[in-house]
Amino acid sequence: MSISSVLLKAALLLYTFTQLINATTKPQFVYVGNAGDDSISVFVVTSNGTLKPLEPSVASPLCGMPSLLATAGHVLLAGGEYTAVCSGPDLGGATVYVYPIQLSGKLGTVSVSYLNDVESIAVDQSGKLAFASGASFNPHAEAASINGWNVSKGNLDTLPSSPTNFFNFETGNGFLPSGLAVSPNAKFLYATFSKYSNYNNVGDGQLGVLSLLLDGGIGSFVNNPVPGCKGAKISGGGNQVATVTLKSKIVIYQSCLKGAAVNIAGTPVIGLTVINPSTGRIEKTYEAFLPPSKTSLAPIAVDPTGHWLAASNGEGKIDVLAIDQSTGRLSEPPHHMFNVDANGVAFDHTGRFLYAAQTKNNVVAAFGFDSQTGNVNLPSLGKQGTGPAPTVVVVAQPQ
Prior knowledge:
Blueprint lengths: L2 H23 L3 E6 L4 E7 L5 E9 L8 E5 L2 E7 L12 E7 L10 E5 L4 E4 L5 E8 L6 E8 L6 E2 L5 E2 L1 E2 L4 E10 L5 E10 L2 E13 L5 E10 L6 E12 L4 E9 L8 E9 L6 E8 L8 E5 L5 E5 L4 E7 L6 E2 L5 E3 L4 E4 L5 E6 L4 E8 L4 E11 L4 E7 L3
C-alpha cells in the first residue's frame, strides 16, 4: 500500500470520527407535521434521546398542510395539499414553504410559494437548494414540472430555469415527475417519473438524473429516465425515494409495485438503482427487492452510518433492511420488523435514536436504535403530544 493511500485512509477515518463527535455534541431538533390542524410541532432532543417541547406548535401558512417535510442546514422545507379553506373540490393544488431554523431550534418567519401540485420535496445537504415536483392533469392547473429555489437566506428565491417542464399538454407526451433527491455534491438532481404517450401511461417508476448548474438552476438530463422498477410484474409505485452514499457509488431506493393492474393496487416493493457520483450516470438497476417475509415495503430513510434502510409496511411496522456496503443491495435480517405504530420515521444524526410520528395517537415517540445490529429498541423511550394526525417527522442539526 502506498504512502498516499495510507494518508487518504487516515484522513477519511479522521473525518468520520470528527463527524461523529460533531453529531454527538451539537443540539438536535425534531419537527413533526400535523395534517389534522396544519401545524408543525417543535421539540429539542435531550441527551438520552427523549424529546422536550421547544415552543407551541407553529401554525402553517393558510393552504399549507405539512404532509411533506425536509430539512438541512438552517432551513425546514414543507409542502402539502391546499386546505379546504382555500381550495374548491375541483381545483386541488398545493403549496411549498420554508422556515429558517434559529440556533435555538425555533422556527423563524415563513416564506411561501403557491404551486399547482406537490408530489415531493428535497433539500441539498447544505440547506441552500430546495426543489419540489408537481404533476397534475387538472385542466385548471396543468403542471408537470420541477420547481427550484435558493433557500440559504430563509426565503424561497426562485432559481434560474425554474420551473422546468417535462410534459407537452398539447400532445399528451412526456414525463410527470414525482420523487426527488439531491446528490451529496449538489451537482445532480435525482427524480422519478411516469412516462406518458398521448395521455396514456406507458412507464411508471422511471428514474432520471438532471444536472444542476453553478447557480443552482436545473440543467438537462445527464441520464434520460429509465425504468428504476425492474422485475417480473414490477411497475412504478409512488414518490418515496431514499439514497445511500457508498464508497464509489450512490444507490437510489424507490417505491415500486408488484402485480399492479387495472383495479388492482399491487404490493409495495423497493427498486434499486446504482449511480456514478462523479458523472451522474446510471450504471446499474437491480431487480426490485422482494423481502423473504413477503411483506409490503416502501423506503423511508437511511441511517447515518449508511448500513440500514428503514422501510414501512404501511401498517405501522418498520422493517430495518441491511445495505450491502459494496453493492447497495438489500437483505432482510431475521426479526427486524419492529412495531413502532407509525409509517413515518426519522433517524437522529448520531444513529442512536429513531423518531416515529404516531398518527392515530397524536404523539411522536422516541426509540433507541443500535446502528451495529440495526435493532430498534422496544418499548419507546418516551412520547410527546403533537397536533392532531401527525404524519411526518424530520430531525435537524442546524449548528
